[in-house]
Amino acid sequence: MERDLLTSKIIGAGIEVHRHLGPGLLESTYQRSLSFELDSRGLRVKAEKYLPVLYKTLEIKDGYRIDLLVEDSVIVEIKAVERILDVHRAQILTYLKMANLKTGLLINFNVPLLKHGIERFVL
What we know:
- By secondary structure, the chain is of the alpha+beta class.
- Helix content is 39%, strand content 33%.
- The chain has helices at residues 2-21, 27-40, 86-99, and strands spanning 45-55, 58-70, 74-79, 103-108, 118-122.
- The longest helix is centred in the first third of the chain and has 20 residues, at 2-21.
């Protein structure tokens, strides 16, 4: 229930960003704007959080990068693409598994209505 409330807050912030900026900008613009909006709403946000990947005995310290990590519990992957592909879904699922987290949001800002660009993932 707590995660549902948090994802609802994140989605609300995303809608606010999309309402002001609309579609057609770079992912980095949406990432910074959403991070700002979440922070202004009192949520802890870590942007571009690098996490390690372990391959056999090799630790790759910056093996992958999470766009936003909200309240240390929800991964937000931001896109600004024509459409979400299966590889984007696989990416967020992999990030959730590797970070040992349960909840993620894939948000594509390149849509006329943001509600059509949001996918929620729960492991």
